[in-house]
Amino acid sequence: MAEMLPPGFEDLLPFIDWAKPTELERNDKRWSASLEESQAFYDRMIERGPAALEYLAPFELSAIGGADRRLLDMCLALAECSATIEMYGDPRPKYVFPIARFVPTHDAWPLAGMGGRA
User: The organism sits in which domain of life (predicted)?
Assistant: First the structure.
């Protein structure tokens, strides 16, 4: 079985279900997670995010796949999750546009969804 995350990032494995390949899927995860789950993911990724971005920095974006892509997807999920923690304090805020109606057109960009799951 292929590695789920790059070596040195095994501590993020409990949060692997946040590694979604598109913005729509990451937002769906954000809206379906409890506040406690979101806070735990946020806290860990705020701590580990700089190391993850440093690790990913040398790669061409189009060349990132497999375990490296899952790590990138987790970094992108942090950007989505941060709204829950930093702005709303609720994974399903009442006074925002319903996420199910928001379909980002850039999810169709050439790299969206790459890095298939092993």
Answer: Bacteria
Average pLDDT, the chain: 82
Q: In whole angstroms, give the CA distance from residue 99 to residue 7.
A: 34
Q: Whats the size of the chain, residue-wise?
A: 118
Confidence of residue 28 (pLDDT cuts 50, 70, 90): confident
Residue 117 lies in a domain: no
Residues 82, 32 contacting (CB under 8 angstroms): no
Asked if residues 104 and 23 have their Cβ atoms less than 8 Å apart, the reply is yes
Judge whether 5 lies within some domain. Answer: no
Cα–Cα distance between 12 and 105 in angstroms, integer?
29
Q: How far apart are CA 118 and CA 115, in angstroms?
A: 9
Q: What's CA 44's distance to the chain center, in Å?
A: 12
Residue-range definition of the domain harbouring residue 66: 10-108
Q: Identify whether 74 is part of a domain.
A: yes
